[in-house]
Structure formats: structure tokens, C-alpha cells
């Protein structure tokens, strides 16, 4: 055995290489692995397929007692009507605006908070960080009433933020989980880099913008995905603070239309749900590697 082979790290799995080398073990292992993968994939993908294909059916075919896995005939009318008659385009743009603004504010606040707790070491910083982590133990439903009272009458300024984007942006600005992930990453950045930037005359803000943030692209990508997905799929909070139909998000508007007196065909409603799901599916497919890569970045010192 060469020195290179002896230095190569061993592959870790539930079943060792010696057991896989036994007759029949390898075939059984890959059979179980394949079946498990197929079952999990079907459990996640079949609801998406059923939703997208049901919107291609006619209302009569959709209401039939015997469901069909494959539509007998393909009709794109439901998607067109959902986009035009249900005004999905308007609510879609509303949601994009809320998600973009929420992402920008959340990233700005969380990065500054994590950088301060990690590198600036303020007085009572550990107590503040512990309080943030403790807030993760609270159920989100327990915070609805205090948050609603706050945005309906903003302390000191006495402003009513209901039916405004700030009612969505401000409560989610300081996200404890994002701050925790960012702080762990910032802790792994060597202090020598920051000291070198300070010697070159960079201020703390310049050090953050020109040194820390370029090194933090993997974790920033993960935080960005979490922020956008969280704003896009949120339902209960927008339902409470956005009572004006013209300012509602896509999920809230679809719920309102489904319970309104105006009869909406079921295939048209499902088409609206499919349109609402497409952006997050595309976002996941494009950035799925960044999720695990960004969370694991900085976990080990190197």
C-alpha cells in the first residue's frame, strides 16, 4: 500500500466496506437505498404533480368521482384565467415586492447584529445573544398579539403600520436564527484579517463591507434563501396586517378568493396555487447546493 493510499480518509457510512464486499450485501444495500429514495421522492413530488396536472383538467373531469392521474385532455385555460381574471399578476408582484424588501432589511439588520456580537464584543453582548436564542423557544403564535399591537401603534412614533409593507418588514428584521448562523460564521474569520484592515486605515464599517462580507458569500446565500422563502410562504401574519385586498400577498389573496361569494372554479384556484409555488421551487433547484454548503461553512476551523 502506498503512502498516498494509507493517508486517504476512510469513507464513513452505515455499512462498512467489508460488509458491502460480502456476497448479497451490496445488492441488498442498494436495493433498500433505491426503494427508500424512490418512496421519499414520490412523497414529495406527487403532490406537486397532482396540483399542476389538476389545473390542466376541465372542471367536470376534476369533479369526477374517479380521479385520473393523467389528464384526459390538456387545457391551459385555467392558468390563463387565474393570471388574468383572479388578478394573480397583481398579487404576484405584491409578494415579490414584500419579499425583496424583507430580504434587504433582514440581511442588513442581521449582518450588522451578528458582526457586532462576533467581532466588536459589546457590553452585555453575551446576554443579548442569549436572549435572542431564547426567543427561538417561543412559539410564533404567542408573539402574534404583541407584534400586532406594536405595528398598529408603533411605540414613541405612534404610527399605524397596518396595510403597509413595514408591517411585514419590521417584525422579521431581527431574525434570531439568521443572527446565530452569521455569528458562527463570523467567529471563524481570523482576527488577523481585521487587524490588518485596521492597520491599513479601514474603519469598522469598511472592514465589514470590504473584508467580512466578501468572505461570507456562502452563508449570505443561505440567509437570503431563508429570508425570501419565509416572506413568500408566510400566511398568518400577512392575513392579520394586510386587510386591504389590493395590498395582500399571493397566499392571502388566494385564501380570500377561495372563501369569497364569487364562485371560482376549482381548477382555476389550483392553477393559482401552482403559480404561487413555481418561484420557490425554481429558487430551491438553483440554490440547493448553497443551503447545505452555507450552513456547514465555518463549522470547522481550517
Estimate the global geometry from the Cα principal axes. flat
Radius of gyration: 25 Å
Strand content: under 5%
Question: Percentage of helical residues?
Answer: 55-70%
Instruction: Supply the helix-strand structural class.
Output: mainly alpha
Taking pLDDT < 50 over at least 5 consecutive residues as the criterion, the unreliable ranges are 1-9
| Helix-strand topology string | HHHHHHHHHHHHHHHH
For this structure, the CATH topology of the largest domain is MetI-like fold
The N- to C-terminal Cα distance equals 29 Å
Count of extended strands: 0
What distinguishing features does this structure have?
302 residues, mainly alpha, MetI-like fold, 2 domains, disordered N terminus
Q: Can you describe this structure?
A:
With 302 residues, the chain is mostly helical. The chain folds into two domains: 3-75, no CATH class; 87-263, MetI-like fold, CATH 1.10.3720.10. It contains 16 helices and no strands. The chain has helices spanning 3-7, 17-20, 25-54, 59-62, 77-84, 88-120, 125-135, 144-152, 166-169, 176-187, 191-199, 204-215, 217-233, 236-241, 250-259, 266-296. Helix 3 crosses helix 16 and helix 6 (88-120) crosses helix 13 (217-233). The longest helix has 33 residues, at 88-120. The radius of gyration is 25 Å and the shape is flat. Residues 1-9 have low confidence and may be disordered. It is found in: Cell membrane. Belongs to the binding-protein-dependent transport system permease family.
Amino acid at each position: 500500500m502506498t503512502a498516498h493510499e494509507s493517508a486517504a480518509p476512510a469513507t464513513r457510512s452505515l455499512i462498512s466496506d467489508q460488509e458491502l464486499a460480502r456476497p448479497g450485501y451490496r445488492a441488498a444495500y442498494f436495493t433498500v437505498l433505491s426503494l427508500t429514495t424512490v418512496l421519499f421522492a414520490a412523497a414529495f413530488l406527487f403532490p406537486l404533480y397532482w396540483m399542476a396536472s389538476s389545473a390542466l383538467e376541465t372542471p367536470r373531469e376534476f369533479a369526477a368521482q374517479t380521479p385520473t392521474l393523467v389528464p384526459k385532455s390538456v387545457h391551459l385555460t385555467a392558468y390563463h384565467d387565474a393570471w388574468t381574471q383572479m388578478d394573480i399578476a397583481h398579487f404576484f408582484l405584491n409578494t415579490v415586492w414584500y419579499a425583496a424588501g424583507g430580504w434587504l432589511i433582514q440581511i442588513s439588520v442581521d449582518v450588522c447584529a451578528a458582526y457586532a456580537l462576533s467581532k466588536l464584543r459589546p457590553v452585555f453582548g453575551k446576554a443579548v445573544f442569549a436572549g435572542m436564542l431564547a426567543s427561538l423557544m417561543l412559539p410564533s403564535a404567542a408573539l402574534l398579539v404583541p407584534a400586532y399591537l406594536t405595528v398598529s401603534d408603533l411605540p414613541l412614533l405612534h404610527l399605524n403600520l397596518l396595510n403597509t409593507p413595514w408591517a411585514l418588514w419590521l417584525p422579521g428584521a431581527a431574525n434570531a436564527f439568521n443572527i446565530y448562523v452569521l455569528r458562527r460564521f463570523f467567529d471563524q474569520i481570523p482576527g488577523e484579517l481585521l487587524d490588518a484592515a485596521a492597520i491599513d486605515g479601514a474603519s469598522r464599517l469598511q472592514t465589514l463591507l470590504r473584508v467580512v462580507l466578501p468572505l461570507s458569500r456562502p452563508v449570505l446565500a443561505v440567509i437570503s434563501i431563508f429570508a425570501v422563502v419565509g416572506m413568500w410562504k408566510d400566511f398568518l401574519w400577512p392575513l392579520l396586517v394586510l386587510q386591504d385586498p389590493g395590498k395582500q400577498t399571493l397566499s392571502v389573496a388566494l385564501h380570500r378568493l377561495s372563501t369569497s361569494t364569487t364562485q371560482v372554479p376549482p381548477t382555476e384556484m389550483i392553477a393559482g396555487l401552482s403559480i404561487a409555488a413555481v418561484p420557490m421551487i425554481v429558487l430551491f433547484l438553483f440554490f440547493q447546493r448553497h443551503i447545505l454548503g452555507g450552513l456547514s461553512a465555518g463549522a470547522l476551523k481550517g
